[in-house]
Amino acid sequence: MNEDKHVQKAEEATLEQPRDTRTDTIFVPEVDITEDAESIYLRASVPGADRDAVDISVENNVLTLEAQSRAGTPPAGYELVGQEYGVGKFRRSFTLSDQVDVPGIKARVAHGLLELTIPKREEVKTRKIAIEA
Amino acid sequence: MFDLTQVQRDPWSIFDGLESLQEDFNQALSGWGRQAPWYRRRMAFPPLNVWSSNDGVVIDAELPGTDTKDVDISVTGSELTLRGRLGDETPREGETVHRRERATGEFVRTLQLPFRANAADVTAAYKNGILRITVPRAEEDKPHKIFIEAG
After folding, report:
1. B128: nearest CB among A33, A36, A111
2. Which end of chain A is more exposed for a tag (fewer CB within 10 A), N or C?
3. How many angstroms separate the CA of residue A12 from the nearest CA in chain B?
């Protein structure tokens, strides 16, 4: 009885694993992350995706980037003879610290590059303390 | 005499690409993906997708966030060279780097085309981080189809 339950659970786990399908291959975009006193800057390569094809969401402090590449449409009458990159969806998630100002996040997409500016909350910004004479 | 201006050769032609594609198929069919799949293998930069027809060749290069002024395409005979420089990623003062996954620096790739191309006819367009280079085949160089007469 117990054993049956165990098997059932294992099956569920396999089904829930992410799968690659021919129509919806998911790629992990390359990112650069930097930080200064004011903000955290995230730059993600999403070649082939324009502004409308990028989706950014924050849920439970998890920032998720999604982008659909529209590149790679073969020219009519041409056949593919060499392929070094795949075309599909980009997806990547990051856990945000609770010290960032989520509503203040700004995003920009240009030339297949997604740039996010994640401001730090006012109270956590590094401040220079003047030493009184 | 040695040619000092010779460009750095990349052992890549669309036919090599075809072979590696075949390898990938074989690997996929055998079900033993010991080697990383083609999309995870780190290859020459920038990664290219190439299409071919009797009319010519179309090459797509993944170059997200690149300034087209920094990219140079040249064609000599049947050799196409793509060279360029990626954005300067030197951190500003007071900036800390946490992750640096995107490629930086300079790149050169030379492709052997299956025909002699006329440099003046080559066109390129940059859209959403993908550079598409169209290399038409000269009319006199196109393969001729021979019609078989009914006997």
Report:
1. A111
2. C
3. 23
Amino acid sitting at position A97:
S
Residue A33 or A14, more confident:
A33
The burial of B81, by beta-carbon neighbours within 10 Å (0-12 exposed, 13-18 middle, 19 or more buried), is given as middle
The pairing of strands A26-27 and A106-110 is unpaired
Show the domains of chain B with their CATH numbers: 8-15+41-87+104-138 (2.60.40.790)
Is residue A60, in this structure, part of any structural domain at all? yes
- A92 contacts in chain B (CB < 8 Å): none
Strand pairing partners for A97? none
Please name the residues in contact with A42: beta carbons below 8 A apart, sequence gap of 6 or more. Answer: A31, A32, A33, A94, A114, A115, A116, A118
